[in-house]
Every structure is written in C-alpha cells, then in structure tokens.
Specification:
The protein is an alpha/beta fold. The protein has two domains: about 190 residues, Rossmann fold (3-Layer(aba) Sandwich), CATH 3.40.50.360; about 30 residues. About 45% of the residues lie in helices and about 15% in strands. It has eight helices and five strands. It has a five-stranded parallel β-sheet with strand order 2-1-3-4-5, with helices on both faces. Strand 4, helix 5 and strand 5 form a beta-alpha-beta unit. The longest helix has 18 residues. It is globular, with a radius of gyration of 19 Å. The site of flavin mononucleotide has 17 residues, from helix 1. The site of flavin mononucleotide (FMN) has 17 residues, from helix 1.
Length: about 230
C-alpha cells in the first residue's frame, strides 16, 4: 500500500469543536484507523473557515487523504451551516482542480432526539454531496441521543456506548480495506443508547434543573403568546 492509501482525515462539523459528541465519535474511529497503520489528521470545520489560509489547508487535507470522515451534529434536520459551507468550498475546489485521488467518504451524524432516523435527511445530503464532488460514498452512520455522550471520550463512556464503539471498530476495519461500512455497523450505531423513558426522564430533569438555576421553575409552563 502507498502512503496515500493509508491516510485518513476527520472533519469535525460541530461548532463545539473538540468538546462535541461529533469529535468523540470521529476521534474514536481515527484511533482505530491509527491501529490499522493509518496516519491521521483532524480538522474542526469552524476553525478552518476562519481565514482563507485555513480553508486552503482543509482543502489540501481532503486532496491528500484516502479516507475522509465527516462527523457532525444535526441542526434542524440538516447539516449545520459550517458543514454546508465546508461542502460548498470542497465542491468548488474539486470542480476547479479535478484532483486525481478519489477518497472514501464516511458521514457520521448525531442528533439530540433519541431516535437515530432524524439524521436520515442529513445523511442523504452527505451522500449526494459525495456523488457530486467525486468522493466514494462509504456510508452513513446515524446516532440518536447524542447529548448522552457530550464530548466524553468513548473509551471512558462506559457500557452505554458499547454498540457505538463496536460500530466504529467495524467501520474502521471496512475503511482500512477500502470498503464501505457494513450494514451491521449502521445498525449498531442506530441502536438506542438507553430506554426511551429513561432518556425522556433525564431530559426533563435537565430542563427543570436549568429552570431552577435561572429562577424560572414556577413559570416553566407559561405560554405568554397564547
Ligand atoms: C441549533 C440546533 C439545532 C438542532 N436541531 C436538532 C434537530 O433538528 N433534531 C435533533 O434531534 N437534534 C437537534 N439538535 C441537537 C443536536 O443535534 C445534539 O445536541 C447533538 O448531540 C450535538 O452534537 P455535537 O456535540 O456533536 O455538536 C439541535 C441543536 C442545535 C444547537
């Protein structure tokens, strides 16, 4: 294998950067690729978009990678703005320069609602993007209840994420062999992290705690615009 074939790039699409669930998921995958002999690089889209120079570095990194992984949150059923902008830049660059390499492209989308299927539209957008700009679609992984991870390292996030870790390990195996992620990985990633009632109970508890801290617990059910 050449050096190019063993290089992977992670694009973190969360404005939270390194402290995001997107970064947790992508970093775990990058580490598994490192164990399989890959050299890896991680770029936060938000930082990269700050200057023309940093945007150029992102574009060069995409050109230089055999595997590109985008890990991003879901914002209003879609990719966040910084990811849309990053995709626009990559599309314009690849149209203008027609690079020889055709990297594998894996998209990982995580959302706040407990069901993973909310990510379907965003993953369809990523798939279309890959086709338009000449990247080989390696699949899409969707995770629900992403706030349960909240930027923690997956290796330290306990049994709750064991299926997530397994999904990423299977994905690393496939990517290292130059293949798309297997259906088993997609299924494991989409499996609920916890029973629905527990997630809803935790979510309600969190909102009430925030309301209490802000002195508005008693008015939490107000509907001033009715
Ligand atoms: C502006 C905004 C819009 C969001 N829209 C959705 C949404 O449409 N559906 C959903 O399930 N979660 C939505 N979320 C929740 C995030 O997807 C969720 O918190 C995710 O775990 C954040 O991942 P990150 O830590 O990688 O940024 C939204 C969050 C924000 C800040």
């Amino acid at each position: 294998m050449t050096t190019w074939e063993k290089s992977a790039l992670l694009l973190v699409g969360s404005p939270r950067g390194g402290k995001s669930t997107s970064a947790s998921l992508g970093t775990y995958l990058l580490k598994r690729l490192q164990e399989r002999g890959f050299t890896t690089q991680k770029i936060n889209c938000r930082s990269a978009l700050k200057t023309g120079e940093s945007s150029q570095r992102l574009l060069a990194a995409v050109d230089g990678a055999a595997v590109v992984v985008l890990a991003s949150p879901l914002y209003v059923d879609s990719p966040p703005y910084i990811v849309m902008r990053t995709m626009e830049l990559i599309a314009a660059h690849r149209k203008a320069t027609a690079p020889v390499g055709r990297p594998l492209f894996l998209a990982i989308s995580n959302c706040g609602f407990p069901e993973a299927h909310h990510n379907d539209t965003a993953l369809a957008i990523y798939r279309r993007f890959a086709r338009e700009v000449g990247l080989d679609w390696a699949g899409g992984l969707a995770l629900g209840a992403g706030e349960s991870i909240a930027g923690r390292e997956l290796a330290e996030a306990g049994g709750m994420v064991h299926k997530v870790r397994r999904a990423l390990e299977l994905s690393a195996d496939a990517l290292a062999d130059g293949e798309a992620v297997p259906p088993e990985a997609v299924k494991l990633m989409a499996a609920p992290l916890m029973p629905l009632w527990l997630y809803l109970w935790g979510g309600n508890w969190g909102w009430k705690r925030q309301a209490r801290n802000n002195g508005v617990l008693k008015s939490i059910k107000d509907r001033p615009y009715l």
